């Protein structure tokens, strides 16, 4: 249930085309359905303008499948993050509209066309091929929430000429997502070149002293470039979601 659907339903009741009892039946599914082990939020899009997101990691298949199937009953779009291949197989068997993207580990249920509502382009850049999974999670998430997305891969600072070659692309983006491990220097460089808000994503890529991404995280938090903000280690989803919201601009009062 989103704002447009709710308006259409209320207008239909007002015009006499929909009975009050039928409208009541539909609205009783708001704001959530209690499955016993989960309270499934059907009200999320109406409140935030973004479809529901389900973290798949750590959930048993017998819990995950009913959650996603229930969310899909309204005919809207649903996103599942950090899904295993086994989880994805079970969900895709139960929900025909679901598809799995193995690199990003995203489950996408797209029952409605995704409307591009972002004002510009979200550019997802990653330092190296080892960071691709996190970068792709960010890219697909931003696209799922209505942004045009471009990708710029393998532009780490160890080969700065590759980064400089993308100068025009950086300047044309509305928001930049910079994904990097090791010393985590990429976001500072991209912010200085682009003049755009940069969402930095530290990854767990690196050798022993990188401490599973902590070194990159601390480096990004200490960036001297103004306009860099940082999400948690390997959190491509969080970066993609935030970039899509920034790209939308201020919401209109409804």
Basic shape: globular
Unreliable residue runs: none
Structural class comes to: alpha/beta
CATH class of the largest domain: Alpha Beta
Question: Based on DSSP secondary structure assignment, what is the total number of beta strands?
Answer: 11
Report, as a whole number of angstroms, the end-to-end distance: 15 Å
Sheet with most strands = 5 strands, parallel
Strand content: 15-25%
Describe the overall structure.
By secondary structure, the protein is of the alpha/beta class. It has two domains: 31-109, no CATH class; 121-248, Rossmann fold. It is built from eleven helices and eleven strands. The strands form three sheets. It has a five-stranded parallel sheet with strand order 8-7-9-10-11, with helices on both faces. Strands 3-4-6-5 form a four-stranded mixed sheet, sandwiched between helices. Strand 9 (175-180), helix 9 (186-194) and strand 10 form a beta-alpha-beta unit. Helix 6 (132-144) runs parallel beside helix 11 (236-248). The model has no long low-confidence stretch (mean pLDDT 87).
């Amino acid at each position: 249930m989103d704002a447009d659907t709710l308006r259409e339903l209320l207008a239909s009741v007002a015009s006499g085309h929909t009975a009050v009892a039928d409208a009541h039946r539909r609205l009783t599914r708001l704001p959530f359905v209690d499955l016993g082990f989960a309270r499934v939020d059907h009200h999320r899009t109406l409140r935030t303008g973004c479809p529901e997101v389900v973290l798949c990691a750590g959930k048993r298949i017998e819990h995950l499948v009913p959650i996603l199937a229930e969310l899909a009953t309204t005919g809207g779009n649903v996103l599942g993050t950090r899904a295993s291949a086994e989880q994805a197989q079970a969900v895709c068997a139960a929900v025909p509209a679901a598809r799995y993207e193995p690199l990003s580990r995203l489950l996408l249920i797209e029952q409605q066309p995704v409307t591009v509502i972002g004002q510009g382009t979200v550019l997802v850049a990653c330092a190296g091929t080892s960071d691709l999974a996190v970068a792709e999670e960010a890219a697909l998430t931003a696209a799922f929430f209505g942004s045009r997305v471009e990708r710029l891969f393998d532009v780490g600072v160890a080969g700065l000429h590759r980064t400089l070659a993308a100068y025009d692309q950086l300047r044309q983006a509305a928001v930049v997502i910079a994904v990097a491990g090791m010393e985590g220097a990429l976001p500072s460089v991209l912010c200085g070149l682009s003049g755009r808000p940069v969402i930095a994503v530290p990854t767990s890529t690196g050798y022993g002293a990188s401490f599973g991404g902590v070194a990159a995280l601390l480096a990004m938090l200490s960036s001297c470039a103004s306009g860099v903000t940082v999400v948690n280690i390997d959190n491509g989803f969080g970066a993609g979601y935030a970039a899509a919201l920034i790209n939308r601009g201020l919401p209109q009062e409804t």
